[in-house]
Amino acid sequence: MALPRVLSVIGAGQMGIGIALVASLRAKIPTVLLYDRDPSQITKGLEFMDKLLAKDVSKGKTSEEDAKAAREKIISITSSSASSSTLNIDEFGWARELGERGSDMVVEAASERLSIKEGIFRALAKNLSKDAVLASNTSSISITKLAGAAVEGLGSSINKASEEGKSCAGRVVGVHFFNPVPVMKLCEVIPGLQTSETTLERAKAFAVACGKEVSTSKDVPGFVSNALLMPFLNEAIMCLESGTATRDDIDKTLRLGMGHPMGPLQLGDIFIGLDTCLAIQETLYEGTHDSKYRPSVLLGRMVDAGWLGKKSGKGFYEY
Ligand code: 3HC
User: Fold this and answer.
1) Which residue has the least CA distance to atom 16 on ligand 1?
2) What is the pLDDT of residues 174-196, one digit of tens each?
3) Does residue 139 carry a catalytic annotation?
């Protein structure tokens, strides 16, 4: 199955940077466009990528030439004009640019908010080639819903059930990577109701080329991974909230008693972010109305306080 020649990654946060890196270094995609509407996020993200590459070179895991080649293929794009938190379709000059530069696959790795992702998918469908794969790295949001937004991007005259609507929705798929992307060995691939077989195969081939094993999940809230992980993290937070055990003892129990590489509170703090944990749990709860997914009050309060984990300097731990 053909790999993309020009991959666009949307969002230069930890996930976007990791995906751009493995796509360039491991999958050897010839051109990787990295878009973020915040230029400082691009600068910070690329500095982090440079550190990861330098570490790989110093450990002999990557040659200096390969690291240099991987880095040179990454072109950053930003739109300093955008300022609102919900993107507006009329402001999507950036999507036109990704289209004009010939993107034949996109991986969206923006914030875990439905309105933001829907806006992006509308813009992508409107501006990219009619055979580009439109993939999302969402942790929990419905791929079927994002495919619906993509079809809306074609204009109000296009019916979702028409041939054109079905063909556009058929190009939307979930490719869910795990943080840190260069290290974690899995990519969960999620077909929506309308995803075509070809799109699914292209998404899997891309993930494998990036050095990942693939698992497939149906398009249910949280997919397999977060339908399992989030109740576990939430239960750990509820144990802390109810005073069942201290923060350190909760994490120690899972690390030393069950062999987890890190405790759940540390994992939420460092590799997910507590705002993202809450957003995923809300999607799970709203999507199923099942009380087992109800986010703990403490998690909501911590996000209200701006204690988002390592990225904000404080979560369950201080950084
Ligand atoms: N970015 C890139 N690489 C990193 C990293 C980071 N943030 N943190 C650590 N690494 C690398 C190190 O550089 C090292 O690489 P090397 O082998 O080339 O030297 C390797 O990871 C191992 O690191 P360490 O030896 O320092 O530390 P550990 O042995 O403790 O391993 C870990 C670190 C692999 C991150 C391990 O703690 C772990 O597996 N933790 C759990 C991570 C996890 O569960 N991630 C999934 C989160 S859920 C998610 O992403 C989905 C979303 O939808 C919620």
Assistant:
1) 56
2) 999 999 999 999 999 999 999 99
3) yes
Strand partners, 135: 107, 173
Residue nearest to atom 39 of ligand 1 (CA): 261
Give this complex's ipTM: 0.97
Q: What are 218-251's pLDDT values in tens digits?
A: 999 999 999 999 999 999 999 999 999 999 999 9
Catalytic residue (choose from 188, 217, 225, 234):
188
Report the percentage of the chain scoring pLDDT > 90: 91
**Per-residue pLDDT averaged across 18-46, rounded?**
96
Nearest to 105 by CA among 22, 206, 215, 25: 206
Which residue type sits at 261?
Answer: P
Nearest-angstrom CA–CA distance, 178 and 26: 16
Query: How far is ligand 1, taken at its centre, from the CA of residue 112, in Å?
Result: 21
Q: How far apart are CA 163 and CA 156, in angstroms?
A: 15
CA-nearest residue, atom 49 of ligand 1: 178
